[in-house]
Design brief:
Low-confidence stretches of chain B: none
Chains: A mainly alpha, B mainly alpha, C mainly alpha
Distance between the termini of chain B: 28 Å
Helix content of chain C: over 70%
Helix content of chain B: over 70%
Number of strands of chain B: 2
Largest interface: A-B, 33 and 44 residues
Order of helices and strands of chain C: HHHHHHHH
Structural class of chain C: mainly alpha
Number of helices of chain B: 20
Order of helices and strands of chain B: HHEEHHHHHHHHHHHHHHHHHH
Structural class of chain B: mainly alpha
Oligomer: heterotrimer
Number of helices of chain C: 8
Shape of chain C: elongated
Amino acid sequence: MKHALTLIVLLPLVGFLLNGFLATRFGGNRVGKGFVTALACGLPIAAFLLTVACLVRLQEAGYQPLVDTAYTWALIGGRSFEIAFYFDRLTAVMTLIVTGVGSLIHVYSAGYMKEDESYARYFAYLNLFLFFMLLLVLGRSLLVLFVGWEGVGLASYLLIGFWFEDPEKAAAGKKAFIVNRIGDAGFLLGMFLLYQTVGTLDMDRINAAFNGATLPAVSASLVGILLFIGATGKSAQIPLYVWLPDAMAGPTPVSALIHAATMVTAGVYLVARLSGIYLHAPEASALVAGIGAATAFFAATIALVQTDIKKVLAYSTVSQLGLMFVALGVGAYGVAIFHVTTHAFFKACLFLGAGSVIHALSGEQDILKMGGLARKIPVTFVTFAIATAAIAGIPPLAGFFSKDEILWFSFASARGGSTFLWLVASAASLMTSFYMFRLLWLTFFGASRMSHEVEHHVHESPLSMTGVLAVLALLSAVGGFLALPHFLEPMLPLPAVVPALHHHERTLIGIAIALAFTGLAAAVFLYGGGARRAAALRGRFPLAHGLLLGKYFVDEAYDFLVSRPLLWLSDRVFLRLGDRVLLDGTLNGLAAWAQRTAGSLSRIQTGNLQLYAFLALAGVVAALVWTWAHV
Amino acid sequence: MTHALLPVLPEAVLLAAACTVLLLDLFLPPSRRHWSFWLTQATLLACAAITVATAELQPLHAFGGLVVDDMLSDFLKLLSCVAVSTMLFYSRGYLAVRGLFRGEVLVLTMLALLGMMVMISAASFLTLYLGLELLALCLYSMVAMHRTSNAASEAAMKYFVLGALASGMLLYGMSMVYGATGSLDIHRIARVIHAGQGNGTVLLFGLVFVVSGIAFKLGAVPYHMWVPDVYHGAPTAVTLLIGTAPKLAAFALTLRLLGVALAGLEFDWQGMLIVLSLLSMVLGNVTAIAQTNIKRMLAYSTIANMGFMLLGFLAANLAGYSAAMFYVVAYVLTSLASFGVVMLLAREGFEADRIEDFRGLNQRSPWWAFIMLLVMFSLAGVPPTLGFYAKFAVIEAAVGAGFIWLAVAAVLASLVGAFYYLRVVKVMYFEDAVDTTPIVARGDNRALLSANGLALLLFGILPQPLMGLCVVALAQSGFL
Amino acid sequence: MSFPTFLFYAFAAILVFAALRVVTTRNPVHAALWLVLAFFTAAAHWLMLRAEFLAIALVLVYVGAVMVLFLFVVMMLDVNFDSLRAQFRNYVPVAATVGVLVLVEMALVLLGSYLKPGSAALPAPAAGGNTRALGLLLYTDYVYAFEIAAVVLLVAIIAAIALTHRRRRETRYQDPGKQVKVRAKDRLRVLGMPAEKRDG
């Protein structure tokens, strides 16, 4: 299998093309949903199995990266741009997550979307997303990665606005796309700068160039910051995180796959993949860590008071991504990827569980109108509880291990670890534990706050959904024992630890465990028994509660500070003055002038044969005279 | 199998088949005319297959050096066969409605293709000229074939007289080169010039006439005057033929004459080509703006495009020649689709050759509007269509050879060009349809035209195989 | 001045004079006849260069076939040559300028390079005569070009027939094939009829 890597990428594309065809007028209504499902789920699973095969081969090859050049896209001058795929330890981990969790969510979707009219269209988009995501993680060159990067943005846009009849959902799709484009500007600039100075876009070569004896003649921090701007867009960090909570407008499995498990971690992957640059960019790394910590903290505070089950999870995702960037910023790239992996498991499980709840409640998303579901949908409850414990950092579940390592390195790393960073990250962890258990309590315990009609219809989801939940819950439980940082260490070495702090490790683990249980206890204390204490607390601090509920009014601030001035500028200056007066005026003038010239030129074309012949002869004579003068 | 006649096997098959169709057609009732058509198509397929099957990496010479069979000629012959075959599929309905779907047209088309093939694999002035005349004679008579149309007769007359003038000039130039070097064989001429043995002044004057003759055939300014009248006057099917495959042969002619035989005079013809190229790009693009007839507009577009092709050619190295070749191939593909759409919209008594006939095409048929959009984008050089990469390649070749100001002029000229191409798009998409007659065409025509249009997009995104073929064909044929 | 040189100048003078008369004479028939003279003199030049085949071919093809055909056409079509001539005069200034310019330039080139004494020795005639040598070459080395030339002629025939020979509905024509195939019974019917008697 020479082109196994290419095949991995192409399988979902085939799914997209076939399902896309079935979704059109020509292909629709000819085949049953069974065929669509088989196609949509079978191909990602095949891609997953192929990835496993590739991993085995990688191991046999002594972890020498596998390279598969699919196609030489363009030769410009002496430089060639190839569509090549690259498979090393990091790629292996990411590809396994993408195809593995991706396949699970495809299977889940088959149950979740069963009643939807646009069933084939949904799976076509989902397959398309997988294709671009695989392009992103497998691409050897930044160029291929960028195509994937933009492609997942497109797929995400299509899926957020999947129910585009609802203008609010369509607007959410647009918002995601536009905010991402702002980040892309930075990404593109960084890419151009790299190409100009390093002369290649192949990421392994870029790393090698930065790790070589002579550094490329470019500030690594500048490139690093530019690329990180791209990452803040895709991975929802301050200041570009605002699209992710709105993106919850899409179908819930989409939120699980794209907006929790895979696409949003692309920024983390990018920084880890180009660790060669960031190792030489202390300023950029400090910025990454700072932004990450701030995002983790602020998003967690917002999540404390949200009442929409998906919004809570969305802010939690933003917060967790912030923690991953903290790890990246202190040089613990392997740990960040470890958290990406465990997060993919438990966050996918949480989202899918939320989907199962919403499914059971016929579309209700407000946790204030739930309660007491534990006995009615037991499988969902158990899996949701395991995932909640995992994300909260209760040992020995998956989240505990990865989060603990992040906290440890944020404290002790020789590459920018500090007590302050650790304090912020720990505070975020504490809040995570709190709001997650609050969510669990409000949803599954206490008295039912549902209307009778809804309560009457509550039912457990079909096996295709609960089965997936069980698998993911299992992974959330045991995923921590994977020891990924160790697996990745030959490629992404862990940062050195400040020797003086070495002895604090056990203390910190203890604190982390204590924080997780404190969060649990606080949530139970406040929300157990009718949540009266929470209401009292809310009454004591109405201002703070309002601020958090309004998400610090960031959207409104952006609207007031950025969007409106921009709109005014576009309308008054660029449109009315620049476009209509200056550009249109010049262009229309030029066009009119060109047309007059053209008119007079075409008047030469009289149709008179002798004139034509004469002109030709005149040309010959002119050429002769010219040549004569040059002899 | 290396038989002495192998290099001309496609030509032999084509000639034999042409004679067969000519005779067979006499005995066929009009209702069986499609037999001739399918026989012709089968012949073209066979020629293409033979060309591919007998292709070899090393150049083969035959008939004492009159004929050369190299990768370049194989590639161009194959494309010519494909282009002519496509042209016949597109024009079948159009010709039938106008009473022109007759055996003679098929035979003349085949013989025109024979002329192109002779030109493409010619290695001597003699064969170059004979091929050219064979092609030209077929085209003249096909333009005149629609006898009830006065415009067609007038166009044929002009084409004939000016074509004869051009042939005369070319022949005159060739005779002077012959006088100066004592040979008709292009490789021997190149050797004589290289050794500095030729008579310099006579050679130069011969060159002037040769370049003039070539410019005439290409339709470069100021030898372009026949192009708009002929494109406009001829039946669209014949315009399609004139505007496509012969450009490949004309490229081969230019390459064999200037790139091989007179390669030693590179600095002299470069100067002339710069003037021709610049004038063609500017005049062609500017004059096209004022046209209301789409065939006329495309004629001026051809003039401008030939200017672009010369822009790549005058770099006079492998990069330049391959860019020019790629440009011609791209142009032929685009032209096929453009006239294909014009013919698709035409029906009995209606030519659909005014720009306003395309009004609101999107409402009538979104698919064909999209295909025409691709064609116009490709002609205007909008990425990611084929035309963009073609323009990019020739401009890069010109810059690489140091003609930066010329490249700038080319970019400006193509900007002007975008104006009239996009106007067609505007008319199709933003104006309301006046004519709501349904568009009918045969299935094979529809399928082929769709494939042709999509190819403009596909090769625009993935230009490398085509470009690679051009480079390999030229490199294997001795242009290093 | 040797005799051949004298002959060359004599023929050249006649050739130039005849060519001038072709374009200046008023009567088209006279013009054609002057052209015949010009061809003959050119043939004489070729003979002096020992190119007897070309000389004969020129006389046979151009004088014998082309000019005779041309004379037929001129005499059969009643072309008003005076109007053509009037147009011709309009173009005289332009044509003269271009013509003279080309002439001067060519003269400059050719005089500079070819009129050096002894630069062009007369090649020896081929063994067995030029005609034989030409024939041998034409059917061996140049057979490909020869065949293509034949195809050019074929195209000319096809084009001429396709463009002129067309059945129009209003044209009346005879079909000899049908005429020959006619049987008596198609045209003539013998009817049996009782003899009539004259009433008494």
